[in-house]
Specification:
2 domains, about 230 residues, Cytidine Deaminase, domain 2, alpha+beta
Length: about 230
């Protein structure tokens, strides 16, 4: 927390380049950004006392970008550093999201093959990614979050990052997926150990790991289909 406050107090120009939202997005893609970093890009500038990351954090109140839906134009104007122009831009973002969601069909995943079809885009990824789908008791997908990106070993992915979003989305089930860009979909020993550990922790926390799918150009491997969950 102290480190975060330090980052928020600093001027953007004084931050390391790997912490700058625009540079990070250009290097790793928009999907690598946190909710605060995404909002910071839209806000463009901060204030005299707080840089743009700090301002974005204040708007989201240390929470999800979904919190924007609960803010009115008047609520935004009460935040120091938000004038009518920025408030109107944020409200426009909400309206765009609402209009998109009106036509967005529900995604129901009831089998490993359906999960694979939804995550098949990972076949084309050149970087390794660990993704989590969060479902309710009716198998409806509530959200999809990237847990880790880059040259990763899933064994080193932090379980707290997976369960943080599960709590945030009020999910029941979790489907994990990661890709093997240059290999077979067959799980490594590390993949198996990681899955066992996450499964054990999920039961302790009241969630259910429904599957862990490994995706490669030659197809996919489902832990559930192979009796490993």
């Amino acid at each position: 927390m102290k480190e975060e406050k330090f980052i928020y107090k600093k001027k953007i120009k004084d931050l390391p380049k790997d912490l700058l939202p625009r540079e990070k997005a250009l290097k790793y893609g928009l999907s690598s950004l946190s909710d605060i970093e995404l909002l910071a890009i839209l806000l463009k500038t901060g204030t005299k006392d707080n840089n743009v990351l700090s301002l974005a954090n204040k708007i989201l109140k240390n929470g999800s970008i979904k919190n924007l839906r609960d803010l009115s134009f008047e609520d935004l104007l009460k935040i120091k550093g938000i004038g009518e122009t920025k408030a109107l831009e944020i409200m426009a973002i909400n309206e765009i999201i609402n209009r998109i969601n009106q036509d967005e069909p529900e995604i129901i995943i009831s089998s490993p093959s359906e999960a694979y079809q939804h995550l098949k885009f990972l076949e084309k990824e050149t970087q390794e990614k660990l993704i989590a789908l969060y479902l309710n008791t009716s198998n409806k997908v509530l959200a999809k979050h990237i847990i880790a990106i880059g040259s990763i070993n899933v064994l080193n992915a932090k379980p707290r990052d997976i369960f943080y979003y599960a709590i945030q989305e009020n999910a029941y089930g979790i489907i994990l997926a990661h890709n093997h860009p240059n290999g077979e979909p067959k799980p490594s020993k590390e993949d198996i150990e990681f899955t066992k550990n996450i499964y054990r922790l999920s039961l302790e926390m009241g969630f259910e790991i429904l599957d862990h799918i490994i995706i490669a150009k030659k197809g996919y491997y489902s832990f559930a289909n192979n009796g490993l969950l």
